[in-house]
């Protein structure tokens, strides 16, 4: 695979002619142009009620997803999965539904249909991967054993957090906590994290300390020695954002029984198979 920054490709293409669709990236001689990315930006903005806005980072993320989708479509067609009876049945049923509902008479139908057919073609590859490499009971049991071994003898925590965007408010929140105000009251007053405000900043779930140690070392170092009911008197700072953590509860990790985790483990193993196949497609592709 020829490795080229999608962000650079986007910047160059869009700067060249902002009023016309330009080729942003080519995947094995198939072009993806800026109009496809524009459409996805619009959809995401509408679905998020304006919370997600246009940005170079968003466009690069969309470009990567479109490249992945195109690779999957190409591989599916190479394997002639779009010629299978199952595929043809899905397409014919969708055509019939479109005629019955009148969708096929809408101005955007051709574009919508191309998107739909591409999605079905990509999903045909996913189904093929999973049929060709079924996850076995032994693999699921082995994965479960690895989980139990990983967390044996470790602890998990239920944390509260107050997220702030300036040092002054962080210091005020710490001062209030030192004076004995309830953490939940302080969190509701100061946190800028709207979803957690309703819970007074307290997470509804436990998080293994081992996961924090590996995935969020700054948080782990701040909370690993906190006793129950204690908070971090020195806010954790990162990129201009300040966080105050509170230890709601700490206990030994409780790994759910096998029967409860089995569906999720199966899904995770299937996702891994799909990711491995997509990685192979990227390695073999000519992307420029």
From TrEMBL:
Keyword NAD: no
Protein name (Swiss-Prot/TrEMBL): peptidylprolyl isomerase
Enzyme class: isomerase
Catalytic activity: [protein]-peptidylproline (omega=180) = [protein]-peptidylproline (omega=0)
SUPFAM superfamilies: FKBP-like, Triger factor/SurA peptide-binding domain-like
EC number: 5.2.1.8
Listed GO MF terms: peptidyl-prolyl cis-trans isomerase activity
Domain PpiC: 154-249
Signal peptide boundaries: 1-21
Family: Belongs to the PpiC/parvulin rotamase family.
Assigned keywords, A-Z: Isomerase, Rotamase, Signal
């Amino acid at each position: 695979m020829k490795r080229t920054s999608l962000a650079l490709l986007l910047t160059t293409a869009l700067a060249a002619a902002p009023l016309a669709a330009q080729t942003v990236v080519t995947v094995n001689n198939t072009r993806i142009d800026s109009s496809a990315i524009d459409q996805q930006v619009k959809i995401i903005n509408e679905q998020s009620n304006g919370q997600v806005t246009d940005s170079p980072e968003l466009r690069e993320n969309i470009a990567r997803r479109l490249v992945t989708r195109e690779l999957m479509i190409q591989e599916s067609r190479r394997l002639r999965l779009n010629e299978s009876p199952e595929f043809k049945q899905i397409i014919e049923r969708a055509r019939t539904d479109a005629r019955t509902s009148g969708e096929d008479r809408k101005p955007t139908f051709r574009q919508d249909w191309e998107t739909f057919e591409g999605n079905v073609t990509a999903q045909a590859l996913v189904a093929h991967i999973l049929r060709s490499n079924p996850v076995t009971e032994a693999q699921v049991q082995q994965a479960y054993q690895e989980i139990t071994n990983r967390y044996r003898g470790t602890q998990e925590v239920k944390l509260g957090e107050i997220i702030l965007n300036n040092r002054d408010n962080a210091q005020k929140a710490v001062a209030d906590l030192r004076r004995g105000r309830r953490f939940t009251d302080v969190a509701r007053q100061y946190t800028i994290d709207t979803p957690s405000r309703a819970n007074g900043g307290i997470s509804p779930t436990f998080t293994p300390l081992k996961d924090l140690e590996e995935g969020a070392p700054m948080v782990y170092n701040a909370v690993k020695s906190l006793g129950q009911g204690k908070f971090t008197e020195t806010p954790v700072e990162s990129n201009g954002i300040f966080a105050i953590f509170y230890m709601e509860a700490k206990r030994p990790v409780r790994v759910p029984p096998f029967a409860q985790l089995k569906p999720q483990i199966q899904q995770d193993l299937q996702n891994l198979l799909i990711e491995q196949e997509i990685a192979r497609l990227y390695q073999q592709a000519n992307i420029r």
